[in-house]
Amino acid sequence: MVKIAVLGDIHGNTTALEAVLADAKEQSVEEYWILGDLLLPGHGRMELFNLLNEVNSTIKVRGNWDDCLLEVLNGDVGIEDCEEIYLNRLVQYAMEELTSESVTSIRETPMHVMTDREGISFSLSHQLPEKNYGWELGPTASQETIDGLFEKYPCDVAIYGHTHIPVLRYSSKGQLLFNPGSVGNPFFPWEKLRHDLRAQYAILTVDEHGVSIDFRKVTYDVSLEVKRAKEKKLPFVDLYQSQVETGVNRVHDREWITTVIEENHYLDDVKGFKEKLLT
């Protein structure tokens, strides 16, 4: 028998990750599978890598925000659009702490992993195995999409993240598909359910009987997370505070982002950052 903590979409939320890892330890978890999107837009940087290095993180896959960070560092993201400035400024902030080794580890993290435990085959990806962005596997995904996933990548259990919404579905043949939700930014489309902001992950138990999934929700100190973000001078901290306090993602709120950029002269910051990347 093996007990595995499956978690992802941490998004820089150090306080939520600490709470999840403490809960997993209490449940005698042996392995940790990480589904991507470790950094951004929260304040967590090297401490997130350190926390995951302290546990038995046996599998990691790369998320779309991980790719966004790499694209900025590769010089592939401009600064003409407010969302581009937003992303550049957050990556600039992250790079104040990240080591070259941590960036290399992100680059070397695969987008898709196949593995076996106790005779059960698993597929792990952030979204689709070949595409770590988009909404193909949203909670109301068509049965045709789910069946196509298993036809293209045959396995007994497929695991993904990205949507920030816990999901349990089956293929037409009975294979299992699940999403553990988000550690750092849980989200519910239905407004009356959106007040539950506990950090989400799942414990996967694989034994001689098969597979069991325990969807977990862990209370963490949101006010402490906001306090840490402000103390560490996180750019766009008001947007981040709104996100962790309401569960609503603000990364595409262009009007708010534009106002913050102008008030804090972030365009000047990212111009200097881009120049350093080119040298």
Would you mind describing this structure in some detail?
With 279 residues, the chain is of the alpha/beta class. It has one domain: Metallo-dependent phosphatases (Purple Acid Phosphatase, chain A, domain 2). It is 39% helix and 20% strand. It has a 5-stranded mixed β-sheet. The protein has a 5-stranded mixed β-sheet with strand order 4-5-6-8-7, covered by helices on one side. Strand 2 (31-34), helix 2 and strand 3 form a beta-alpha-beta unit. The longest helix has 14 residues, at 82-95. The model has no long low-confidence stretch (mean pLDDT 97).
Short descriptors:
20% strand; Purple Acid Phosphatase, chain A, domain 2; metal-binding; 5-stranded mixed sheet; 10 strands; alpha/beta; EC 3.1.4.-; 279 residues
Short description:
39% of the residues lie in helices and 20% in strands. Strand 2 (31-34), helix 2 and strand 3 (57-60) form a beta-alpha-beta unit. With 279 residues, it is α/β, with parallel strands linked by helices.
